[in-house]
Specification:
The structure is a homotetramer of 360-residue chains. By secondary structure, the first copy, chain A, is an alpha/beta fold. Chain A is built from 9 helices and 14 strands. Chain A has helices at 14-25, 76-85, 152-160, 170-185, 215-218, 233-243, 278-285, 301-304, 335-349, and strands spanning 4-9, 29-35, 43-46, 49-52, 66-69, 89-92, 164-166, 193-200, 223-224, 249-256, 263-270, 292-294, 310-316, 324-331. In chain A, helix 4 (170-185) runs parallel beside helix 6 (233-243). Chain A starts with a strand and ends in an 11-residue tail after the last helix. At the A-B interface, strand 8, strand 9, strand 10, strand 11 and strand 13 of A face strand 8, strand 9, strand 10, strand 11 and strand 13 of B.
Chain lengths: 360, 360, 360, 360
């Protein structure tokens, strides 16, 4: 069977390597190129294949059906344009084109899931996990007027018909999938604060060496970062929450775990009205979804490591006068939180089985 | 200088070993015995001394000035009585005598910090960190009518004059010290939910081998436990919060970290009124306290490992309509969360320098 | 395509779970049963399938083409007999039937690779990694007179035609594959000591909870065990080495690593004569072998994790008067060191592609 | 009691920070300065004191009685001279002045322990643990003609009378202390190869960020480095071994452990004649030594963490025709392997109790 050629820009970072490996093992895709700025000419073993990195400038964009851009935030938008100009579809893993920019809603109608105006150049930070306090970033208009947000379980139809998709951030993926049934049912208490304490493994902070990411500093350690509700992923999450018309504040505190991969979000939500059997709401919403598991017990990061799934558990909090849910949502930040979801979207965009090549 | 003889019951568990090591290095205390049920006759090197464990029954309680009971919850109260009958003062590290039992307040007057009625036999669970969902436990009256709660920075005077002290739990120590300035100033918003997401190293779960505590299961993993707001430490915390007259719910979700020691509590508190410079409130309250550090930046568990301190940072949350604080409180669960605070209390009870023998 | 039914006895241990997961994902095999003594009735998610454990007594041995016995050493031989009596082929992962028993050589002719006399009941120790000092164990005759040793790259032909195969131990797999080219070429210096310092992750010690395997004891730790050249795997290795006629002593010191999976063997071998380009000897011997990688640089355990390969590097030692090689051999102890090699053998025994269902 | 002022050059690296902390807690020493090239002006909490780093050029060398130089190899010798010129004694933690340079023996007489000619500028590598393959480095004469080697238990008298001491490397400390009784008794088999497989935590590789030292690369990993018997520490060890007249080759393979601190050396030594009770030889040699523990069982790195000791165990290997010992020697690489031993030496040079301020 003929394989469809795809390429990866930014293939030496953690997400890029994961993508290249997924593509190398994919039954219907072939890895046409793996571009990596600093490692051009070097060889790596990815997904059972020997891969030689090229520079982005040498990447044969036009010989691929689809390009994944796993570049630093801000550097991505220009390459999305170049790949489009060369005729390739694009899944962009940076936050350049995600919701939370200039537009107030995701769609003029307020109907979620496709962005009218995306933004470019919004941040030079690390992929997914800034080590310093985040802050609001001004956005400017974008040449991609209607880029769907690739939270696949929310926007499957838009993704399937799109030429460019903005792949969600790792934290937003875990948190928004956990909140989705409540948002869709309008069950978040008006005026409430949705409290999210989340923890991520170090691969979320990228592959650039920094003192605070060295083994000797991370082992036997744990700390919060981005403290004060200023993490850059908040804009992305707020935009989606607002698009559902939910009148709630998000309070998000991320933490750095001494593990390589995985995100666990612990979300507490005051409810508009009590829910006796909350799990059924999640089971109904995600029935038939191959990449969302509703679990009877709290998920552990080990349950989702090396798998393209979100694993979600929901419990009613005892001893609170406001009816409150505790939602636990676990993902592998490099798979469902980045490369896996990107491939899920790419499969749809290329007309393939959505689950092809994705580890369960 | 003559050294004061003290003993440790339960000296082979994580907290007990830490206590025996602290005593062995102490300038004014001598370790008269170290009792350990299953290891009687075995030798260990603790605090630079060779220690041979005896059985609790063989422990010469009457030849000590003070006994630390680091026994399983429920097993402790009877030994507290025996040690008292033998003439020794007692610091009890179990939760048997802590607040949260039958009495509605800590003092009839509502004045905090000394318990009128404590409880016995309230639970056979693990020390500090039950692996299963907690639940309310019925309490019965106790033979210790006025046992001070040994959160030293709150109850120093009562501790100094006491014969028996109930040493706080590890989670309550980190959380209550973080909340103390707000509670004392009456700044928690009435009717609010104080949200606590906390994470602990595995020594909090005790030294008894269980499948879920094996290295192969904990490494590269992270998970919540006691989910649903039912952790046994909640009664203890609620009793203290209520004693201050705060009209707030606690919502507490603990997590298990792949590290040996340390607790980080991430606490969000809706305020009765905005605080422009919150750190000054904490700095004022803990001025001169040797074992509480108010930090300019979020604390890391590494900052407090092997030290008898709580390290606290406070930030105002951006982007919330209710004024909200984020309090981060880090301790070493075996020191300030257990053995260190127990020794701090013992020093006071024996008329010694409160800081003697405590690592800073 | 019809799938061939196979079963796993001992499916709740680390090797057994890995096997069940490999079978569940296998393109040509179906998991007919997964038996686990203590967990009968419990459900687990293995290889993307929900699996319910049965007892070994309830296992429908006769409805399978092949049974994997991943039982404790000593407990295995009896089940091998029962599975054979029921008509199933067997791959035995215990050391009950491996070389090193009563017979002095693997074959009367001295031709390696098929055992004349195997042994039963030789040890109740842990799978693969005893925590206490090993010792010589008396062997008795066996009902399996000619069980091939399943070091696949050495004994492929015998395995393909066998009804029962003794799967090698994890340490022997890494060490013997590393030594194989030297043994076959007769290049080990006569009378020399082959020095092996090896280190294994904790899954090699099995899933039974023990204090020394708890996270709090293993993290930030490292130690040798089985010190004194008495590890139980030595008999197995010595038997193979002797079968090649090599006149050398083995000196083997294993260590416990604070990681979940992986074995690295660091082997130094005095040579009968100098080798200028040693790597070519390994490249030639393993040319075309899909599961042996000869590397230009020292292998890291990360290179082989979750893959069914041995990765080997060889260097000439500088500054020694005796020509000496340093061989580094890395495997995933649960895959090439246990379940993966077992499946490699099973594929051959069932006439399937040797590589089917094995992660590269 | 008046405290003696000392300074630390290179105080922001792992060894330098450890030294500054030891000095800060020392009963008889005061930290006069802590110089750190890149962090000048920054503050750190070290040993319970707030320390502000200065530049080396601003360091008041002349106001100290002794300076510790914890600088990169090659950069150290010049600062040793400057500190000496300013009147301070010096303990140098680099390998610039250690044995193994131009001189063939440590003393003209062949009597060990004081170097006639030391070398300068021999290597720009990392402290203690080069990540790349080592190689022979040409040495040039030195301005420090007779710098004692500070392996305290071997050279106590020379150290006590010295103005400059070359503090041993971390690997040489663990290995040479383990071998010392055999070397002094002339028990190493003539012509034999002493085989050393050692493993170190990451702090041995220094604090400079490198991709291969990031948490995401080290966790769940293990690998050899400096493979081929070319590690830079070999010259240092060979010089000491040769000084004892031992006619043996050293074969040394270091490995990188996923832990922060600790070195375990596993040493196998062919003996000139059998030793029935080897431990007694070590017990006799180190009787009364406060910082060497002879253990009945194999030492674990946890036994020595945060302690200034070498913990040594010795066993006779079974099943080898040459009588062979297995020596296991464990240290904390930052204490007995660097800062602790440096302080031990400084205490002697300043006429203080050798054990002052050193954690046991």
């Amino acid at each position: 069977m003929h394989k469809i050629p795809v390429g990866v820009l930014g293939a030496s970072g953690y997400a890029g390597r994961e993508l290249a490996a997924l593509v190398a093992r994919h039954p219907r895709l072939a890895l046409r190129f793996a571009a990596a700025h600093g490692q051009a000419g070097e060889r790596a073993r990815l997904g059972g294949q020997d891969v030689t990195f090229c520079t982005a400038d040498d990447a044969p964009l036009g010989e691929t059906a689809l390009v994944f851009t796993a570049l630093p935030h801000g550097a991505s938008a220009a390459w999305v344009e170049r790949a489009r100009a060369a005729g390739a579809k694009v899944v962009d893993l940076a936050n350049d084109l995600r919701p939370g920019g200039a537009a107030n809603s995701l769609l003029p109608s307020g109907k979620h899931a496709t962005r009218e105006l995306a933004t470019a150049g919004n941040g030079a930070g690390e992929w997914g996990m800034p080590m310093s306090h985040g802050s609001a970033i001004p956005h400017s208009p974008t040449p991609f007027p209607a880029v769907p947000y690739g939270l696949t379980e929310l926007t499957r139809a838009q993704v399937a018909g799109a030429d460019v998709v903005a792949n969600p951030g790792c934290y937003p993926t875990s948190i928004l999938l956990g909140l989705l049934p409540l948002l869709e049912a309008g069950l978040v208490a008006p005026g409430a604060t949705v409290n999210v304490s989340a923890a991520s493994g170090v691969t979320g902070a990228g592959f650039t060496p920094k003192p605070e990411l060295m083994f000797g500093e991370v082992t036997e350690n744990f700390r919060a970062y981005g403290v004060g509700n200023g993490h850059k992923h908040l804009d992305e999450m707020r935009a989606v929450v607002a698009d559902f018309g939910a009148d709630a504040d998000l309070l998000f505190t991320p933490h750095l775990l001494p593990i390589a991969r995985g995100i666990l979000a612990t979300i507490t939500v005051p409810l508009a009205r009590p829910l006796a059997e909350p799990l059924s709401l999640w089971r109904d919403r995600f029935a038939g979804e191959p990449f969302v598991e509703i679990a009877d017990a709290p998920p552990a990061l080990r349950d989702v490591a090396h798998r393209n799934v979100a694993r979600i558990h929901v419990t009613v909090a005892k001893h609170t006068r406001t009816p409150t849910l505790i939602i636990l949502s676990a993902i592998d930040n490099l798979l469902k939180g980045a490369a896996g979801q990107a491939l899920q979207n790419a499969n749809l965009m290329l007309g393939l089985d959505e689950a092809a090549g994705l580890p369960l």
